User: Fold these one by one.
Assistant:
Number 1:
Amino acid sequence: MQPFTAEVIGTMLLVLFGDGAVAACLLKRTKAENGGWIVITTGWALGVAVAVYAVGRISGAHLNPAVTLGLAVSGKFPWSDVPVYIFAQFIGAFLGALLVWLAYLPHWAQTEDKGLKLAVFSTAPAIRHFPANLLTEIIGTFVLVFGVMAISANAAPAQSGLTPLLVGFLVWGIGLSLGAPTGYAINPARDLGPRLAHALLPIADKGGSDWGYSWVPVVGPVVGGVIGAIAYVGLFGA
């Protein structure tokens, strides 16, 4: 049960930091209202780093079904453990979103814009164009998984304890460079778990959960993650 619990806690921390930063910037009457994209991307990056530091030694800190599936397809992770990891990641993402809702409890009623409330929990494209949105998520997750495997293959960062911080920097860079078109889910659990929380939680005047778009931040990251892992192993064999 230790890897399962670690993936739950790690993914919960990831979403708590990330969605918490989004809530701080988007919800009305917070002290960080209108903080902007730099604040949001930094929150996600720090969330990843803290989560990997917290549980990396226990579960490997996948925290993302796209990472788990990519490693399994490339032969770096046993298929028998895939369902347990993915189930844990979705539970953790839901719990992280629940904690964000509780942390910002007075601010939901103060925020009239339904879209901003949903944006705290899940991603949405700046321009709604499914093929382009899907491609963006594929590219972003390709870079994520390829980059994580590259960082992990180097002994020096692991020995010095810098690997989690470097993974956080990787996520920060992806957010700054590739995140603007879609909000860079690059993680099916990070989007679908909180989206489900948005649908179920008693948020004042919240509107719909945009299930019509929800397949993009699931399919895109899975495809990108698998391609990224296969590409890294195919090129470097490590």
Note: Residues 2-26 form the longest helix (25 residues).
Number 2:
Amino acid sequence: MGKETILVVDDEEDILELVRFHLSREGYEVLCAGTGEDAWRKIKTQRVDLLVIDLMLPGIDGLELTRKLKNDPQTRQIPVVMLSAKGEEVDIVTGLELGADDYVTKPFSPRVLLARLRAVFRRRAVPAATDDAIIRIHGLLIDRGRRSLSIDDRPIDLTYTEFQVLAFLASRPGWVFTRSQIVDAVRGDDYPVTDRSVDVQIVGLRKKLGESGHLIETVRGVGYRFTEKRGEETHTR
């Protein structure tokens, strides 16, 4: 039974009550907000372990609220699950690119939402220290325990998903992974993310890696791999 505090942000009272009821029954502490502004005040003044955010909010909408959250060093590590009637691919990709951990479309099943939230908490749990918790390769230091990246001692800020993708690829340099394998490794089985979403994450990663971006190779018709050799010729989009 969970005891984490979840903030649900939605301007529809019936949705707020439905989600609050099911989360409370599972043992979570639940806070509710009807606007982005109210949600931000609660985030800054109360403990919040996860947010469920509707995109279409009055005033500060869900995307802008997520952007504020991820741009603030004090709140950027709080996981976000977007809950929205906007289910087009571009909406999902935009939400994930901003750093959302999951995206659930309305109408939704409360049981599915609960399963997604539990999965987010499992993924966010700090792993025990192991021999491969830190990856050092080609000037990159990837600390999976702290979920941090530095290149030649310079810290690089990545979204949660970008970091997970990088750590997964870099843990097996030279191995080629399909987009589906990357999604399964980062998000879990049956996660409804399109191939395009993986491509967006790779584009963002390469941009943030700068001169080291070429280390992530595109294997045409298959997927991606992290190069074994720093000076190896690469093929990118």
Note: The chain has two domains: 5-124, 134-226.
